[in-house]
Amino acid sequence: MGITIIQIGVLYTLYVVGSFIQQLLHIPIPGSMIGMLFLFLLLMSGIVKEEWISRGANMLLSHLTLLFIPATVGVMDYVELFSGKGIWSIFVVIVSTMIVMLFVGFIGQWAQTREQKRVREVKGA
Amino acid sequence: MIGASMLLWTIVVYMAMRKLYARFYFPLLVPIATSTVVIIITLSLFHLSYEQYMDGGKWLVHLLGPAVVALALPLYQHRHTLKQFLWPLLCSTFFGTIIGMGSGLLLARLFHLPEQVVRSIIPKSVTSPVAMDIAALIGGIPTLAAVYVMVAGIFGAMFGPTIFQRLRLTTALGIGSGLGAASHGIGTAKALEMGKKEAAISSVAMTLSAIFASLLCPLLLLL
Questions:
Q1: Membrane spanning segments where (chain A) (predicted)?
Q2: pLDDT attached to residue B223
Q3: Total domains present in chain A
Q4: How far apart are CA A26 and CA B59, in angstroms?
Q5: Domain locations along chain B
Q6: What are the chain B neighbours of A55 within 8 Å (beta carbons)?
Q7: Three-class SS of residue B127?
Q8: Which single residue of B89, B95, B96, B199 could bond A104 by disulfide (Cβ 3.0 to 4.6 Å)?
Q9: Residue ranges in chain B whose pLDDT is less than 50
Q10: Interchain contact B123–A (C-beta under 8 A)
Q11: Residues A61, B199: C-beta atoms closer than 8 Å
Q12: Are B175 and B194 in contact (CB under 8 A)?
């Protein structure tokens, strides 16, 4: 448990560093994502070993849904959107979300099956 | 005191809703949706405001930053897959971002929604901090934008997997990129339930969408 907490502390530090870089350079990308890219580079270059953060990372990731709940509860201040005319805006969001999900999803699927076919052909030849 | 009990209550509700979902595995029961509803109901029963709730809720929000950083781990573990599919991912999320913002804009105009609402809907597919920044830049309302981001996220987590299954969209790359591009972090949390590979791809799709959306939003100002 202690190790997990220390590792979460390391991840938190990287998040703070990311936020600092974001404010310093005024990049329109959240600090957490800059921190993620930074950690990814550290892992790739071998400066940080997977085991140093894996326990903490898996702990946070397995409860990622929990961490989003406070943000989703914020919808309570806008309940009027879910009744009357506001419902159309929700409808628009849902339809548009579905379009994006299927468009991106099917391109991904197509790319993967094409690649698998290519690999099979190479092996067959 | 209220803060500590709100934090504890959120964790208890989340654990219970997870159990419920594991028991029935019905899309409408995804923990993110049921937990949100249960908490909102209890808050209104006790006449507590969102502000009072956030006294405790903010501690979980503090962990969201390091959790996003932690996504570097599945990214690293699946680096070979990502390298293999970098181009398809770049193209699909780029056009996915345009389609997401464009279809939101067109549909909202079609329904004659107020201009500020239209501009708050546009960035709904990207992670909330970025979406709120974009909304502020293009003349929307940041908090309203965050609400639409949550709707897009919850919808994707609720129905994404079922829709994929119905349409035979079954590959890790298809599922992961679709969830990440349309439903950002909440979609990625859902992808994690389906597999580490799906999650890695989803976090890449979510990151790319956020980057593309921030780059493309100045163009939207021209509309």
A1: 5-21, 27-48, 60-81, 87-108
A2: 62
A3: 2
A4: 26
A5: 2-70, 74-220
A6: none
A7: coil
A8: B96
A9: none
A10: no
A11: yes
A12: yes
Query: Do A97 and A58 sit in the same domain of this protein?
Result: no
| Helix (H/G/I), strand (E/B), else coil: B85 | coil
Would you say residue A70 lies in a domain? no
The number of beta carbons lying within 10 Å of the beta carbon of residue B1 is: 7
Q: What percent of chain A has pLDDT over 70?
A: 98
Please indicate whether, in this complex, the C-beta atoms of B113 and A89 are within 8 angstroms of each other.
yes
pLDDT at position B129, please? 80
Range of the domain at A123: 75-125
* Residue A45, domain member (yes or no): yes
ipTM: 0.88
Residue A48 phi, psi (nearest 5): -110, 130
Nearest by CB to residue B210, choosing from A29, A70, A113, is A29
Q: Tokens 């591009």 sit at which residue?
A: B181
Do the Cβ atoms of B139 and B220 come closer than 8 Å?
A: no
In a domain, A68, yes or no: no
Say yes or no to pLDDT of A41 above 90: yes
Q: Which residue, among A52, A89, A115, would best test binding to B if mutated, counting the most B CBs under 10 Å from its CB? A: A89
What are the Cα distances from residue B15, in Å, to A3, B19, B20?
23, 6, 9
In a domain, A67, yes or no: no
Do the Cβ atoms of B108 and A71 come within 8 Å? no
